[in-house]
Amino acid sequence: MQQSEQPDKRWQIPFFSIWFGQTFSLLGSSLVQFALVWWLTRETGSATVLATASLVAMLPQIFLGPLAGAYVDRWNRRRTMIVADTGIALATVWLVVLFSMGWVQVWHIYVIMLIRSLGGAFHWPAMQASTSLMVPPEHLSRIAGLNQSMQGAISIVAPPVGALLLEALPMAQVLAIDIVTAALAVTPLLFVMIPQPARSAPVGDSSKPSIWADLRSGLRYVRGWPGLMIIMVMATMINFLFSPAFALLPLLVKDHFGGGALELGWTEAAWGIGVIAGGLALGVWGGFKRKLVTSMLGLIGMGIGSVMVGVLPGSLFGVALAAMLLLGFMNPITNGPLFAVLQASVAPEMQGRVFTLLTSAATAMSPLSLALAGPLADELGIQLWYIVAGVFCGAMGVLGFFIPALVNMEKNNGAAQMVDGGTPALAPEA
Description:
Oligomer: single chain
Number of strands: 0
Largest sheet: none
Low-confidence stretches: 414-430
CATH class: Mainly Alpha
CATH topology: Growth Hormone, Chain: A
Helix content: over 70%
Order of helices and strands: HHHHHHHHHHHHHHHHH
Shape: globular
Radius of gyration: 21 Å
Structural class: mainly alpha
């Protein structure tokens, strides 16, 4: 088979030029997301509305994710990211106009969240798949830790800054920040080249396979890796339980703890501080030799933090912040090792499909859980979701230690995966 391009030895300048631009874009998107969620919370006070907003944002990931991944693997990934970022920015321009004219309604927010999610369905796998082609394998774990720390830092900065901006500026001006940061993300993409992976073709067939053939080959690749299949099942179950918990966080702060936008900002900032601390701890420690053991411990820790949030009385908001800190700390402990395994092991020409299949599987049950969560939370209380999610998350972390195909995932993925029904893909190595 053809070999994919290897990362350039002078990879830092081109990679970090894109990385810093994407960081600014993520910051702008986080500010906008905070502003929109708080606007819905303030204007409606409805758990059903918040659950519906989260549901709308998930639909493109679920229904278009696998197909988007197949296109990402055949399209130019740099152009894909440019178009996705630009499309999201144009949608924000439309929303700025609506707020400026005083015409905005709840359904407009739903449409914008749908468009932003559609852009993300193409942008995220393109960026993740490009990383393994631009960064040498020995540095992928460091980049994964850096990404976790960056996301944590944004989680700290965006909520309180968003709350302050909402107090100082009209909503339209807050949203306009996202347009500026999107321009900062697109600009380096116009000048930096991203390597494209070599594609495999069936033996004796030089024709370009159809998009459906690409999608089927991605499904076969995932099915042929038992550990990856188990990860998909576990991610689906965890997202079924955690999606409502995080979608309803603004109402938990407002109704249970009696807080406002600033308290919501501190709650999300506590999560972000935990993510940074967890990322730094993982960077220094490195995790156990078997990376999935580290991830299972992270799941158990996340379960403990979620249960704490669910059982605390409204008078103990400070303790709730500590519980969110624990949840954030355990997030990179769970995700960092897992993404390092996947980026180092999955064949480069398959990564767009594999990452989007994982994302789609993880969110596939979330619409059902969100449809149930809104009405049930209005009737039974929001804390219930945090307790149930935490118990199941911790139980799955414990169970993972007793599944050899999971904890030995890095060792057992050496068998060649078949691509397009013909030539084996790059042999994954731990």
